[in-house]
Amino acid sequence: MIVVMDQTSAPELAEDVAAALRAEDMQVLRSRCHGRAHLISTGTAPRGLAERIRPLPGVESVVDTEDALRFTGRAYQRADTVVDVAGVPIGGPAFVVVAGPCAVENRAQMSDSAHGVALAGGAILRGGAYKPRTSPYSFQGLGRAGLRLLAEQREVTGLPIITEVLDVADLDDVLEVADILQVGTRNMSNATLLRAIGRSGRPVLLKRGMAATIEEWLLAAEYILSEGNPDVVLCERGIRTFEPATRFTLDLSAVAAVRRISHLPVIVDPSHAAGRTDLVRPLALAAAAVGADGVMIDVHPDAAGALCDAGQALHPKELAELTADLGRLLTATGRVLAVPPPRAMPARPRALATEGV
Amino acid sequence: MIVVMDQTSAPELAEDVAAALRAEDMQVLRSRCHGRAHLISTGTAPRGLAERIRPLPGVESVVDTEDALRFTGRAYQRADTVVDVAGVPIGGPAFVVVAGPCAVENRAQMSDSAHGVALAGGAILRGGAYKPRTSPYSFQGLGRAGLRLLAEQREVTGLPIITEVLDVADLDDVLEVADILQVGTRNMSNATLLRAIGRSGRPVLLKRGMAATIEEWLLAAEYILSEGNPDVVLCERGIRTFEPATRFTLDLSAVAAVRRISHLPVIVDPSHAAGRTDLVRPLALAAAAVGADGVMIDVHPDAAGALCDAGQALHPKELAELTADLGRLLTATGRVLAVPPPRAMPARPRALATEGV
Amino acid sequence: MIVVMDQTSAPELAEDVAAALRAEDMQVLRSRCHGRAHLISTGTAPRGLAERIRPLPGVESVVDTEDALRFTGRAYQRADTVVDVAGVPIGGPAFVVVAGPCAVENRAQMSDSAHGVALAGGAILRGGAYKPRTSPYSFQGLGRAGLRLLAEQREVTGLPIITEVLDVADLDDVLEVADILQVGTRNMSNATLLRAIGRSGRPVLLKRGMAATIEEWLLAAEYILSEGNPDVVLCERGIRTFEPATRFTLDLSAVAAVRRISHLPVIVDPSHAAGRTDLVRPLALAAAAVGADGVMIDVHPDAAGALCDAGQALHPKELAELTADLGRLLTATGRVLAVPPPRAMPARPRALATEGV
Amino acid sequence: MIVVMDQTSAPELAEDVAAALRAEDMQVLRSRCHGRAHLISTGTAPRGLAERIRPLPGVESVVDTEDALRFTGRAYQRADTVVDVAGVPIGGPAFVVVAGPCAVENRAQMSDSAHGVALAGGAILRGGAYKPRTSPYSFQGLGRAGLRLLAEQREVTGLPIITEVLDVADLDDVLEVADILQVGTRNMSNATLLRAIGRSGRPVLLKRGMAATIEEWLLAAEYILSEGNPDVVLCERGIRTFEPATRFTLDLSAVAAVRRISHLPVIVDPSHAAGRTDLVRPLALAAAAVGADGVMIDVHPDAAGALCDAGQALHPKELAELTADLGRLLTATGRVLAVPPPRAMPARPRALATEGV
Question: What InterPro entries does this protein map onto (chains A, B, C, D) (predicted)?
C-alpha cells in the first residue's frame, strides 16, 4: 500500500500516518518523488486499512496496490523521462554518445581520450576510477587519483563525466566528480548502494545485471526512484547465453520492451556486450535504430595496450566515423545527436598541477 | 583432407582418387561446387597422403585441412554471395522484405495476404503449408492444398514464394512451388533434409537452431553447400535464454559476427523472435541497421484470428508503414529495398479453379 | 477434442465419426493406444459438438479437452510405465545400466565393448551405427555394417541392443536389430520420425532436446504415444547454458519434475552431458539418487582413440566400479540393478562370418 | 607475481619488498594465509624482477605466476579443507544439514524452527535477518531484532547459526551472532563485502552467482582467501536457464567439477534452486550422491504462511524424513551425517527476556 502525502502537508503528518500503519503490523518505507512524500508499506494490509488511512490529515491519495513498478512504470508517468546530465539531455529526441576508456590509467591517456571523444562528437566522457574485477589480482583502478584525472579533463574539455561507483564508502568521493554515476552489472542488485544513490539525488546510469530479467532490472531502478531520485538512465549491456562468439548477447529486444513498460531512458553498451571491436559499429547503429536513447562506447587512444578490456575499445578516429554514421541514420528517423554543453573544449588543455599519476 | 578435381577432368578420375583414399582407410564424401568435383575425406590421414594424392590424374588441388567451414567461410570466397530468388536478389546492396502469414489457411486469407504484401513493398511471399508444431494436436498445415494456394498467389501477384519443407518425403511437392525453400529452427540439424536440399540445387533459407551456436549454424549450411548448392540464405530468428519478456532473444550480434566469417547472406525474423507485434517494427529497423540483408515478417489480414502464432503478425497496413520506415533508414546508409520481379501483380486475381480449400 | 472408440467397435464406425468431425471443419488425426482407436481432432470445436458426437455408434468417450499431454500425463495413467526391452524392464524398482561405445567402429572394438559391458553389470548394449554430426566432414557412422556388428554382439552376449535412428529411410534396417530405438537430441522435434516410430510399436528412448523445455519434451513423446506406441523411455542428457566447464548442464531437477507430471520412465546420460570422464561417476550416482530409472554410459575399450566423442568414455573396468557403487547406493534406497536377460553371454564369442568391417 | 614472506620475518621486511615492487610500477596487494604474509603484485613484471626480489631479506618464495586461483586451487593445497563452524565440521567425511527458515519472522516461528531442525538431525540453524529482495517493497527482514532471535535459539538449542550479511555496514552486528556468515547469490561479486569478510576471519558460506561460471565463483572465493581467511564453504544454488519448470536449474555437475579444481567444501541449496517443495528431497539426495559436503534446506513450521519464499519450505517433520533418507544413502557410500555440537538443545527453551518482536 502506498500513501502519497499532500505536497504542502507538514512532515509530522506523514509521521502520524506511518505510526498508524505500523500499528497494523505493516513495515513502512519513506520515499519522496516529484515533491511529495510517499509512505510505502509492506506486509499484508488488514481489510479496510486503506479506507481508514485515506481520511487522515495530509493524505493526498492511497494506492492499495501490489504493483511493484510503482515509479518506473508508465502508469505512474506516461511521458518519457529526460535526464539532464550537466546540460546534456538523455531521453527525448536527441541521441547521446557516451565514450571514453574502460579504466582511467594516467593523465596522457585521459587527455588523449577526452580530446578524442570531444572531437569525435561524444557528449559525455566515461572513465573508470574504481573497477569491479572478477579476480582480486587484476588491476582495480586508480581510485581517487583517477577521479582527479577525470575532473581535470572535464575542466579542459567541458564534457560531463560518468564514472562507476562500486561502494557506498566511495560515494562521497565519486559525487565530487561524477555528473552522472554508473552502477555496473555486478551491482544491479546491491540494494544498499542503490538506496544511497537514490538519496544522493545525482543522475545515475543503471546497467542491467548480466542475468537479470527486464522486470528485475526495473525493480532495481525502483530502489533508486523510491528514495526520491527520478533521474535514472537504464543501460543494456548484454546478457549471458550459451553463444561463445560474443562475450555476452546484446538484447536489443529488451530496449524496445522496456520503453513500452517504463518512461525511463535506455542506452546501450555494445562494447562490453560484444567484447569485440569489429561488432561495435553495427551494434551501435542497431541500437539507434531500435530506439535507444544513446550508446556508451569503449574508446582508448592505444586500444591494444589498455589495462582493462584490451581489444574491445575503438580508437577515437573510429569513434568519429561511428558518430558520423549514427548522425546519418538518426537524421533519417527524425532524430539528432546530442551535443555537449556549450563551453566544451576551449582549446588544448592547460598544464594542470596535480599529484603525479 | 579435400581433393578438388579439375573442372574438365572425367568423372572416372575422381573415382580413382576416391578409391586411393579408401585404400588408406579414409571415408570419402562426394561434393560439387562451382563446377568442380570435391572429394572430402574424413578419418586420420596417414603421413604423406596428400603428397601421394596430389600428382594423380585430374587432381587440381589437395587441401590438407581440418577446417570445417570449407565452403561457407570467407577463406573459400571473399565476395558476398548474392542468391537469386526468381529475380529477387538476396545479398548485395538491396534489402529484401519477405512477408506473409505463418500458415496458409484458405484462399481468401492468402489472396488478402499476397496483395497486402505486394502493395506494402514486400518482395517475396511466405506461407507455411507444412507446419512444425510442438504438440501433435496443433494445426499441422494444409499440406499440398496449401502449396496450391501459394502457387495461385504467385501466379496472380508475381511474388516469388518461400515455404518450409519439413521432410524429405515432401520435398518434391514443395519444389514444384517454392522459389526458395525454408528449413525451420527445429530442422537445422536434420542432416538428411539438408543433404537432400543440397542436391536439389534450389535456393534455401536456413533458420538458426534456437540453441545453436553460430559455428553449428554455419556447419549446417556446410551440409548444403558441400552437396553442391551454393544458394543458402541464413536467417537469425532468436535464441533461447532466461528472459521471459520475449519468446526468444533476437541475437543481432550474430548477424554481424556471421558476416565476418561467412560470405552467405543473412536475414532476420523479428516476428518469431519476439512473439509480440509491438516489437516487430523496432527490431526490423535494428536488423537493417546491423547489416542484415533482409527481414522476414509475419503478416496476416486478420492477425488475432490466425491459426498459428496469433498475436505476432502485423496487418498488411502496418507492413506498409514498416517498409516505408525501412526505406528511409536504408537510404541513409546507401542501400535500397529490393523490389519484386517486374511482372508482379498485374491486377486483381482472376478466379482460379482449384479444389475448394 | 479426443474421441475414444470402443475396443470392440468396427473400424468403419471410427471412419463415420471422423467424417462427422470433418464435416464441422475439424482436422482429424488417427491414433491407437491400449487397444482403442482414438480420433484426435484439432481446430475450434463448434459449440455442442461433443454432445453430438458422444451418442454416435462405437464411441466410448469424448474428451473435450485442450490438454496437450493427453497420453504422457499422470491424468491418463497414474501408475508408472514399465517398458520391456527384450526382457530388461525400464521403470519400476530396477535401475538399468545401458552402456557401450558412442559409435560402432569395428568388430574388435564392439566385441571388447560388449563383453566389457556384460561383465561390468550393464543390462543393455548401446552403439551408434548412424551418427548425427555437427559437421558434414566428421565420421558419420558405419550404417548397416554397424548394425550387423551390433546384432552379432547381441547373439554372443545376449544383451539387448539400443541404437539411434536418424531418418525414416533407415528405420526398417534399424528395426531389424534394435530392441529399443534411440532418438537423439537433434531429432527430438522431428515429427515425421517420431510418428514413424510411434507406428513401429518398438520401444524407444527419447532424448531431450538440448534447449527443450520439459513440456516440449513430453509433447515430443506425445507424438509417439498418440500413434499408439506406449513404450517410451525419456532420457535427460544436459541442456545448453552459459557454463563452459561442462559440455552441457545436466538437469537432474528435470528428472524429478518429469516423474511428477508423467508416468514414463526417465534415464540419464551423464557422459554426453558432462563431456568429461571424471564427472561420469558422481553424476551417475546422483541420477540414481534423484530417482532416475537408469543411466546410459559411454564405454570404450580404448577411450582415447574413439572415433567419436573421444575423452568422455569410461573403460569397461571403470564401468564395473561404477555399477558396484550404484548397486550399494540403490540397495540403501530399496532398489536394485536391472539384470540382463537370462541367456546373456554364454562364453567367449564364436567367430562369426560377416563382411569385414 | 606473488611473494610469500617467511613466517617469522618482521612486518617491516614485507614493507621493504612492497616498496621494491612499487618502484617497478607494480600494484601491491597485501594478504595473509596460513600464518604467512603474501604480497600479490599486479601489472606486467619487468624481465628479471622475480630474480631480484627472491634474495631480499624475509622472502620465502616468489611465484612468478598469472594463475588467478592462487589460494582456492588444488595446486596450493591438495587436501580437502574442513571448515569448523563452532564445533560442526564442513568438509571431510561428515555431511552437514543446514536448515531453517528463509527469513526470521518472530520468536515463535524461530523457536519452532530451531527445535524442529535440532530434532530432525540438522546441525546448523539458518535464518535471514537481512533479506536481499528484488523489489524495494518486499519484506526486507527484521535486521538486528532478527539477529537477537537467532542468538536466542543458539542459546536454547546449541545449534551454530548461519545468517546472511548484505552489507559491510551490518558486518559487525552480524559477526556478534553468526558462527558462519552467508554471502548470497546477488553479492557474489561484491568485492568490498568479500574483502571485509576475508579480514573478519569468520567462516563464510559463499553462494554461487545465478549466472556465474565456476571460475568466477572460485575467483570470488579468492577475494576472501587472499585476505587471509581460509574458511570458505561454497554453495551451489542453481543457475539461470531457459527452463521454466524450476526457479533455477540446480547444477550438480558444478559440485563435482569444483571438487576437482578446489580444496574448498561445497554444499547445495535445493530449496532455492527448485523453488518447489516437491523437488527438495530428490535433489538433496542427489547432492549427497554427487559428493557434496552438505545441504541447506528451507524449513518453516508453517510453510504456506512464510513471509519470504512461501511454498518452497519443508515442514520440520519432512526434514526429519529427509535426514533419515540421507543417513541411509550416506552410510552406503561410507559417509555419515554431521552432528551438532555436544551441548545442543538441553530441553525446552527457557523464557528469555528480549525486546518484543
Answer: Aldolase_TIM, Class-I_DAHP_synthase, DAHP1/KDSA, DAHP_syn_2
Spell out a b/e string for B318-335, using b for 16 or more CB atoms within 10 Å of the CB, else e.
Answer: bbbebbebbbebbebbeb
Distance from CA of C159 to the nearest CA of B (A): 30
pLDDT tens for A268-281 read 999 999 999 999 99
Helix, strand, coil percentages for chain C (3-state, nearest 5): 35, 20, 45
Rounded Cα distance between A109 and A316, Å, is: 12
Is residue A30 over pLDDT 80? no
Q: How far apart are the first and last CA of chain A?
A: 52
Mutate to test the interface with A, among C185, C210, C239, C242 (most CBs of A within 10 A): C242
**Cell numbers 555486478 correspond to what residue?**
A186
Element (H, E) at D232: strand D232-236
Task: Show Cβ contacts of residue C280 under 8 Å, excluding neighbours closer than 6 positions.
Answer: C270, C271, C274, C297, C298, C312, C314, C322
Work out the angle between the directed axes of helices A280-290 and B280-290 (0-180°, nearest 10).
150
Interface contact D219-A29, CB threshold 8 A: no
Burial (CB < 10 A; 0-12, 13-18, 19+), residue A339, is middle
Any residues with CB less than 8 A from the CB of A285 and at least 6 apart, and which? A325, A326, A329, B289, B290, B333
Q: Which three cell numbers stand for residue C40?
A: 484426435
Domain ranges of chain B: 2-63, 83-337
CATH code for residues B83-337:
3.20.20.70
Among residues D11, D24, D33, D4, which one has the least CA distance to residue D223?
D33
D222 contacts in chain A (CB < 8 Å)? 135-137
With CB atoms and an 8 Å threshold, state whether D189 touches A189: no
Query: Could you read off the pLDDT of A83-139 as tens digits, one per residue?
Result: 999 999 999 999 999 999 999 999 999 999 999 999 999 999 999 999 888 888 877
CB neighbours of residue D107 within 10 Å: 18
Q: What are residue B29's DSSP bridge partners?
A: B40
Instruction: Nearest chain A residue to C248 by CA: give it.
Output: A242
Determine the Cα–Cα distance for residues D100 and D122; give it in Å rounded to an integer.
Answer: 9
| DSSP sequence for D32-56 | EETTEEEEEEESPPPTTHHHHHTTS
User: For D349, what's the count of Cα atoms within 13 Å in the CB-facing half-sphere?
Assistant: 24
10-residue mean pLDDT profile of chain B (357 residues): values are 81 87 78 69 73 86 71 90 97 96 94 96 96 83 95 96 95 98 96 96 97 94 95 98 94 96 97 94 98 97 68 92 96 93 58 40
ipTM of the complex: 0.83
Pick from A133, A137, A222: which is nearest to D40 by CB?
A: A137
Cα distances from B192 to residues C136, C272, D90, in angstroms, run 11, 23, 53
- Amino acid identity, position C136: P
CATH architecture of C2-63: 2-Layer Sandwich (3.30)
Is D244 within 8 Å of B244 when comparing Cβ atoms?
A: yes
Would the CA dihedral through C267, C270, C271, C272 be positive or negative?
A: positive
Interface residues of A toward B, Cβ cutoff 8 Å, are: 211, 213-215, 239, 241-246, 249-257, 260, 273-274, 276, 278-279, 282-283, 285-291, 325, 328-329, 331-333
Q: Among D208, D247, D252, pick the best mutation site for testing chain C contact (most C Cβ within 10 A).
A: D252
Residue A71 cell numbers, joined: 515509479
Report the b/e string of A235-250 with b at 16+ CB within 10 A: bbbbbbbbbebbbbbb
N-term to C-term CA, chain C: 52
State the Cα torsion B249-B250-B254-B258 to the nearest 10°: 140
Distance CA D81, CA D224 (A): 15
Q: Which helix (H) or strand (E) holds A154?
A: helix A144-157
User: Which residue in the block uniquely carries the three cell numbers 455442442?
Assistant: C48
